Amino acid sequence: MKLSFLIIGSIIGAGFISGREIVSFFYGQNAFFVSAILCGAFSVFISFILIVKDLENNVVYSLVKPLVLISNFVIMSGMLSGLDSLQEQIVSIDHIYPIFSTVAVILSNIILYRGVKGVEKVNSFLVPVMIAFMIAVTLPSVSFSQVGGDGIKPVKLISYCGLNVFMSAPLFNAAGKGKSVIKSFAAAALSAVVLCVLIYFALSAVTAKGNSALSSPVPTLVLAGDMKIIYYPFAICFIFGIFTTLLSSHYPLFSLVENERSKLFYRILLSVSTLGASRFGFYNIVSYAYPFIGLFGAVVTVVIAISTVIFPPKPRRRTLHPQERTE
Fold first, then answer.
1. What is the spatial distance between Cα 218 and Cα 134, in angstroms, rounded to a whole number?
2. Contact status, residue 139 vs residue 201, Cβ threshold 8 Å
3. What's the pLDDT tens digit per position in 104-145?
4. Which helix (H) or strand (E) holds 50?
5. Phi and psi (nearest 5°) for 94?
6. CA angle 224, 139, 24 (to 5 degrees)
7. Is 200 exposed, middle or buried (0-12, 13-18, 19+ CB in 10 A)?
8. 133 occurs within a structural domain
9. Do the domain assignments include residue 148?
10. How far apart are CA 270 and CA 272, in angstroms?
11. 216 φ, ψ to 5°?
12. Torsion angles phi and psi, residue 91, rounded to 5
């Protein structure tokens, strides 16, 4: 279950929990078809990333790794920007004072010192809460007879799947090491089913609610507004969603420098840089950068899968530690 929670937490971000991401990508499409196709796509893509032996040593991945890291930098900045936007709404402190985002980036650094295990522990606690509240908010408004349009938009589906899997590929691959193929497939399939049920509920509920939800920056909070008792708890879950995505995008950047002398300086510089980039604003980052990252990610993931079959990565030679050489 820990692996499934890690996967779900990496994909359920600010845009997902707000419902805005789901509406932007899928409104006007058939909710049932969208959910069914995404379930299959997520299962296949995530399974591949989990079981591939050495993603870092893949020929294609090595070539595009700089772009992967840039994408993670952009997404991390977007999550920090989202926290500051939420800060303005919840505690009425202007987003020019990055209090929420500064606290979040400090916590993220502390957790990532534990590596993948640190992320798994956090997600194992936060993700069940997020799922429960997402269902509580959307299920009362779900209309199983009103599922949106008749068809789908393949480019939107590919872009969405690519964005989420590609962004978290380094973390997924690290988490999958040591896991059997069966466990990896099971974790990917369970994650895909949960994600796609939530997508179906959110898309159907927002569509049934109409313009008040569709035109809102945070459609699911409009749904939660009908149930005052869970309005603020759901806002907290919104923060949880941002934070789990922040962790998954921060992970490959955090792990980039291995030199002990340079680590601290690099990680401080990274934190300050992403806080600075977050000043571009949540809306601008999500609206203009995410679609390009999604399409790029989908194409690269498919090419990596093909290249892994044609050019399997060569196992790295183990370099002996100086003490081992003398023994």
1. 13
2. yes
3. 999 999 999 988 999 999 999 999 989 988 898 888 888 766
4. helix 31-51
5. -55, 140
6. 70
7. buried
8. yes
9. yes
10. 6
11. -80, 145
12. -115, 5
What's the token pair of residue 326?
């003398």
Is residue 323 a part of any domain in this protein?
no
Q: How far apart are CA 286 and CA 158, in angstroms?
A: 17
Rounded Cα distance between 271 and 126, Å, is 23
Give 312's DSSP letter.
P
Query: Is 326 part of a structural domain of the chain?
Result: no
Task: List Cα–Cα distances, 162 to 171, 174, 231, 254, 290, in angstroms.
Answer: 15, 18, 31, 22, 10
Burial grade of 260 (CB within 10 A; 0-12, 13-18, 19 or more): exposed
Whether pTM exceeds 0.85:
no
Residue 221, Cβ neighbours under 10 Å: how many?
20
68 pLDDT above the threshold of 80: yes
In sequence order, which residues have a C-beta less than 8 Å from that of residue 129 and are 6 or more positions away? Answer: 237, 240
Q: How many domains does the chain have?
A: 1
* Domain extent for 236: 2-310
- DSSP three-state, residue 14: helix
Distance in angstroms (rounded) separating the CA atoms of residues 57 and 48:
15
Q: Which CATH number does the domain housing residue 165 bear?
A: 1.10.4160.10
